[in-house]
């Protein structure tokens, strides 16, 4: 069983995505049905939807949209919902979301906002409200933002965090040492897990398995097999070859691991983390 912890559905007729205008390669519909067809062929049997940074006015509408897709049957088992911890209305929005068992966690994309956003007292206090809720908070940050991310983690020790995409490494640029040091430091925080997801999008057009190996292996080595989960980052992974290519690369990268270790990465850790 492979549990994909990072699927994005893009449906421009149903929701608004302001950021898509700046990414022409992704500025089209990516329907669930297209993903499901390829995912099932590749051995994926369940998935979590990851918020797609919709228009803030549609955050709750996105959750309802994805839940509707799940109700029709298929692979969807829950969602990581968008949130705005920097806003005064976060507490009320959180209470509404906590009433919905389909919502497994939350994310505020941080690599497209000022570095100082997560440093405010309100932001940290609001993220801390997740303590004891069983919901996670995904960190999507650039390597240079790792100090801010670690400060947020330290301010909310009772919250379970998930670091997306191996910390968004600059694989194509080969900027390894600063990224490695950040991953090593983040992994010392026991309330953080790492998501081995979609790194093909950052590897340049000529990547192969060996291109990815040092980045993926260091992340797994730093966090350990008990604190890693797998994700596709579809359709962003189409920028680097697509879902099938990323699945094949992952299998090659962990071929030397034990069956128990691979099971932890592919599904067991995610099932335990999100109660799936």
Structure description:
It is a single chain. The chain has 276 residues and is α/β, with parallel strands linked by helices. The protein has one domain: TIM Barrel (Alpha-Beta Barrel). The protein has an 8-stranded parallel sheet with strand order 1-2-3-4-5-6-7-8. The radius of gyration is 17 Å and the shape is globular. 43% of the residues are buried. The mean pLDDT is 97.
Biggest beta sheet summary: 8 strands, parallel
Count of β-strands = 8
Q: Could you give me the name of the CATH homologous superfamily?
A: Metal-dependent hydrolases
What's the alpha carbon Rg, rounded to whole Å? 17 Å
Oligomerization state of this entry? single chain
CATH top level is Alpha Beta
The name of the CATH topology is: TIM Barrel
Compute the average pLDDT. 97
> In which order are the strands of the major sheet placed?
1-2-3-4-5-6-7-8
Helical percentage: 25-40%
CATH architecture: Alpha-Beta Barrel
The percent range for strand residues is 15-25%
Number of helical segments?
Answer: 9
Content-based structural category:
alpha/beta
Query: Are there runs of 5+ residues with pLDDT below 50, and where?
Result: none
Please give the alpha-carbon distance between the first and last residues.
13 Å
What's the SSE pattern? EHEHEHEHEHEHEHEHH
Shape verdict: globular
Total count of domains:
1
Main traits of this protein?
276 residues, alpha/beta, TIM Barrel, 8-stranded parallel sheet, 9 helices, globular
């Amino acid at each position: 069983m492979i549990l994909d912890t990072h699927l994005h559905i893009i449906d421009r007729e149903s929701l608004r995505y302001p950021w898509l205008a700046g990414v022409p390669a992704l500025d089209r519909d990516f329907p669930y049905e297209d993903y499901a067809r390829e995912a099932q062929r590749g051995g994926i049997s369940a998935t979590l939807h990851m918020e797609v940074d919709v228009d803030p006015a549609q955050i709750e509408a996105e959750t309802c949209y994805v839940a509707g897709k799940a109700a029709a049957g298929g692979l969807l088992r829950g969602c990581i919902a968008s949130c705005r911890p920097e806003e005064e209305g976060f507490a009320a929005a959180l209470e509404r979301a906590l009433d919905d068992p389909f919502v497994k966690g939350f994310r505020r994309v941080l690599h497209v906002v000022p570095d100082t956003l997560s440093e405010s007292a309100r932001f940290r206090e609001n993220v801390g409200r997740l303590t004891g809720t069983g919901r996670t908070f995904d960190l999507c940050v650039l390597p240079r933002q790792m100090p801010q991310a670690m400060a947020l983690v330290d301010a909310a020790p009772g919250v379970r965090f998930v670091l997306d995409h191996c910390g968004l490494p600059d694989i194509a640029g080969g900027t390894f040492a600063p990224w490695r040091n950040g991953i090593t430091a983040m992994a010392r925080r026991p309330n953080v897990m790492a998501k081995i997801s979609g790194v093909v999008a950052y590897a340049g057009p000529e990547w192969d398995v060996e291109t990815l190996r040092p980045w993926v292996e260091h992340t797994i080595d730093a966090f350990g097999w008990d604190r890693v989960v797998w994700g596709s980052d579809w359709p962003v992974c189409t920028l680097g070859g697509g879902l099938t290519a990323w699945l094949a690369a992952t299998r090659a990268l962990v071929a030397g691991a034990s069956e128990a270790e691979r099971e932890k990465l592919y599904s067991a850790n995610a099932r335990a983390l999100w109660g799936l």
